[in-house]
Amino acid sequence: MAMKQLDGHLYEEIVQSMQEGVMVIDMNGEIVMLNPAAQHILGVMPEDVVKTYGAVFLLREENDAFNEIILNTVCEKTRADRVPVEFVRDGATASLLLTTSYIYNNGERAVVVVINDVTKLNELRDTQIALKVAEGASEAKSRFLSNMSHEIRTPINAVLGMNEMILRESQDSEILSYASNIQSSGKTLLALINDILDLSKIESGKMEIIPVEYKVSAVILDLWNVIYFRAKEKGLGLSLDLDETLPGVLYGDDIRIKQIVTNLLTNAVKYTPKGSVELKIAYERQNKEFACKESSDKELSDREDILLRISVIDTGMGIRKEDMDGLFESFQRLDEEKNRNIEGTGLGMSITLSLLKMMGGSLQVESEYQKGSVFTAVIPQQVADDAPIGSFEHIQKSSLLQKGSRQGSFTAPRARVLVVDDNEMNLTVFKALLKRTKLQVVTADSGKQCLDMIQKQEFHIIFMDHMMPELDGIETLHAMNHIAVHKNRNTPVIALTANAVAGAREQYLSEGFWDFLTKPIDSGLLERIICEYLPQELIVPNDEEMKAENETVNGYDAYLQQGVSVESGLRYSQGDMQMYLELVRLFIKDKNKMEQLRGCLSEHRMKDYAIQVHGLKGNARMLGADLLADIAYEHELQSKASCEEYITGHWKELEQAWEQALDVFGKLYDQYAGSREENQKLPAGEALDLSREQLREMAERIDAFQTEEAVLQMKEWLRHSLDAQIRRMLEEAVSAIEDEYDEDKAVALLKEEL
Amino acid sequence: MMDKKCIIAVDDSGIILKTLEKLFVGKYEYHAFSKGMRALRYLKEEGTPDLIILDIDMPEIDGYEMLEMIRGKDDLKRIPVLFLTSNNDRQHVMKAVGGGADDYAVKPIDEKVFMDKVHKLLKEEKKKLSWDDV
């Protein structure tokens, strides 16, 4: 549409259609024109316009500012350009922008006022400002949380650490009982603080669910260990009902799951004066209705979903129906009077519910007052490994049983570590925890001092506190990497922090740390980390403990009396009892040895005797039959020198030692592998008649070095019912190959049958 | 993917051979012989291993004789040979090492020391080849 003279009608329509308010006032202050938008903004009805005179308008005191602007323009004082003004209308205040200008109408001057309602715009801006302020507050809260965390945990670290030293070193039983009380109170305090910090984290939205692949058996064992003593102390029965088909490895946040179930278990124990507590673990498979195989995200579609149902069933006080809802309020303790003696802040349930919600799970409660309750945590999880978990007894047996001893498992006197922390108490605790390992611990109280020391001395591990004034742990680490020459370029640096938030591990690793430990420092974890990062040759395992274990648990002393050191034999089998027993079995089978030796002796073949007895010596030594080995060695030397008289005179000695060794091995075998013999009796299959052709072919195969296939075939034959002589021959042939590595003998046996 | 290296062991003690089997299982292809003659036939007919482990004192044919026969064959003379010996034979072994064996290990076998030697010998083989080719 070209720019051309528009007729009056169009102008009128334009003004009437505008969303901005347009008002025209003449020199008398009378409203000449008020478009619909202005009517709407000013809250003036069309009828009023006819009646309203500028004078009336201008009398509304509440809108002085508004009036002033218009007056100024009318009186030629100033023109307004988007001046903001507040306008009151029907009790509500609107924010307006006024723009004024002149027109001449029939020689007469009039003022045009354009009104923009920016109330909403202002509200939006205000909201954004408020949001920024709120975010700032949230940041401040997080910083407060982590600082508090650090501030609170440091002195607790000191208390628990020093108390641990008292428990380890004091011999006075009264002092030990005091220290024991300190420990349990200290642990309660730590648990309380952790609860408070957790709840704060949840409320400020900083709590995260971090899924990982985890072994369910480890979780169950931890839970069991946590609750076992508490239940037993109170004289409560404790049992576990585990669905053995539960997949063994799941994908989820195992730490938070443990936290949830621990809360339920401790509550159950707390509120059950007598009776029992049961932990029940069940699950349901979720059917994936959609064809996930079509999904391009292969990882997700491979994983199945299950609903984990962990129930805690107790015979405790129960909950009244009326009180059920109140259960979930923070700090609320039902039946206040009755439960006043029970410790705890009651925060646990609130945390539990929040965590469950975050995981997409829920809590189910069934309870009967005075009878007992069932709390069930229902948690969706993904399956990482479908292989079933098995029975609880099996889990317990395969776990490494820690004796909970205060004894250390190793010493490392030649190792030197540096620990950097601005807090003197922390340094003292650290040194004390490592006292029993005999490690040389050097301390530095600042990042600066650390940088100084690493240039002077070599350390095997450096422990670096994160929060330090001036130069913090991370800055110090970076500075270390920039120093051109120092003796600790390849030294592992482990971060120490009171602040274990989500993503901490990744953060520390990305900054260049090798690993990290949280405070208060767990001495078991500390020792484990040291074992992991120290060069192997510096670690001296605690032999006394190991020896004591072997001797008392297994009673090898008796065998030592008979000239056999089972300990030595085991050592040569890399500590593997199964392997040791297999070698023992071979030795027992080789009865011919003595016959052969006797033959050499009676036929005066001293050279052959020497070779044979040399072999016997070697075998005996491998199995720890030291007495036999020593005697055999003497025979070897003597027969090599052709001293037949010696051999004849000392033959009985050799024979006796050999028989004694066989006796010990027989007992050992019975003790540890008794069931083996039964297993070997396989059920006889159908009858099989082997032809000479088959036997000949077998012999040829073995001759042609196709030994593995041959053995498999013979074992397959042996699964059938065979002629007794053939069976015996085949068994001998298989044994000749597998145990004696003498294929020629096997071939000979086969050929004999032809 | 590279094939596993192949190790041959000859020793009249089934116990030693089984112990070696446990050490090598899954890591190397392993063939064991308690009779030297069969081992020699294997070497002739079935191909060349990457390492040969020989006991010294054996009836019929002993370690030294076997070594001589191995070193006498073109296709076998470059294969590393490791002697197994009891402590007291050390002097004899030192002599034999001069005659072509590459190393020796003492019985009863110390796993770490033994496996170190095996690893070294399995790697050295390549070095030897390049020298001889020159």
Descriptive keywords:
heterodimer, A: 754 residues, alpha/beta, Beta-Lactamase, Heat Shock Protein 90, 5-stranded antiparallel sheet, 29 helices, elongated, B: 134 residues, Rossmann fold, 5-stranded parallel sheet, 5 strands, globular, disordered C terminus
Question: Could you walk me through the main structural features you see in this protein, from its secondary elements to its overall organization?
Answer:
The complex is a heterodimer of chains A (754) and B (134). Chain A has 754 residues and is α/β, with parallel strands linked by helices. Chain A folds into six domains: 14-117, PAS domain (Beta-Lactamase), CATH 3.30.450.20; 123-203, no CATH class; 212-287 and 302-397, Histidine kinase-like ATPase, C-terminal domain (Heat Shock Protein 90), CATH 3.30.565.10; 413-540, 3-Layer(aba) Sandwich (Rossmann fold), CATH 3.40.50; 546-679, Up-down Bundle (Four Helix Bundle (Hemerythrin (Met), subunit A)), CATH 1.20.120; 692-753, no CATH class. Chain A is 52% helix and 17% strand. Chain A has 29 helices and 19 strands. In chain A, strands 6, 7, 8, 9, 10, 11 and 12 form a seven-stranded mixed sheet that branches. Chain A is elongated and about 155 Å long. With 134 residues, chain B is α/β, with parallel strands linked by helices. Chain B has a single domain, classed as Response regulator (Rossmann fold), CATH 3.40.50. Chain B is 47% helix and 19% strand. Chain B has helices at residues 14-24, 36-46, 63-71, 90-98, 111-133, and strands at residues 6-10, 29-33, 51-55, 81-86, 103-107. In chain B, strands 2-1-3-4-5 form a five-stranded parallel sheet, with helices on both faces. In chain B, strand 3, helix 3 and strand 4 form a beta-alpha-beta unit. Chain A binds chain B through residues 572-574, 576, 579, 582-583, 586-587, 590, 608, 611-612, 614-615, 617-619, 621-623, 633, 704-705, 739-744, and chain B through 12-19, 22, 32-35, 37-38, 42, 45-46, 57-59, 86, 88, 107-109, 111.
